[in-house]
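Objective 1b. Sequence-to-structure analysis of Eclosion hormone.
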Amino acid sequence: MAAKFTAALALFAAFAFAAHFESVASSPAIATGYDAISICIENCAQCKKMLGAWFEGPLCAESCIKYKGKLIPECEDFASISQFLNKL
């Protein structure tokens, strides 16, 4: 009797385990990739907010599109934003 109960419990657990993974419909960013152009343009906007008139936001966004997001600006990294700074 105990063997039947244990086998039934194991079968139920396996079914519940399999059913749980079939119903999960998630898509983490790492598995699906990311849009580099979008991240680049968002960083341009962030730098424009941080640096104001000293930062050429439209020029940065054009660079994102031209290079397809390969050169993502980091607002605290002078080397990555130097081409978008002006002297006022």
